[in-house]
Amino acid sequence: MSVRDIAESFPVSRPAISRHLAVLEETGLVESRRAGTTNYYAVRVQGFAKVRAYLDEFWEAALARLQTLDRE
């Protein structure tokens, strides 16, 4: 999607959306390409592998703590 298309969905300016997208690109969650004066962004599915691994680990630990509490 273009920055313009993305920005239409949020109550913030296009420059603010661009700054957020730059951070997401730095972390590998999105990738960009330029066509003329328009920047297009796409989700990098493989970039979410680390997020998924973190969430899996978080929930496994949380569930283990709940099981411990349930036994007490």
Keyphrases for this structure?
single chain, 72 residues, Arc Repressor Mutant, subunit A, two-stranded antiparallel ribbon, 3 helices
The largest β sheet comes out as: 2 strands, antiparallel
User: What do we call the CATH homologous superfamily?
Assistant: Winged helix-like DNA-binding domain superfamily/Winged helix DNA-binding domain
Q: Determine the oligomeric state from the structure.
A: single chain
CATH first level: Mainly Alpha
Order of helices and strands: HHEEH
Q: Report, as a whole number of angstroms, the end-to-end distance.
A: 51 Å
Question: How would you explain this protein's 3D organization?
Answer:
A hairpin with a 2-residue loop joins strand 1 and strand 2. This protein has a two-stranded antiparallel sheet with strand order 1-2. It has a single domain, classed as Orthogonal Bundle (Arc Repressor Mutant, subunit A). It contains 3 helices and 2 strands, in the order H-H-E-E-H. With 72 residues, the chain is of the alpha+beta class.
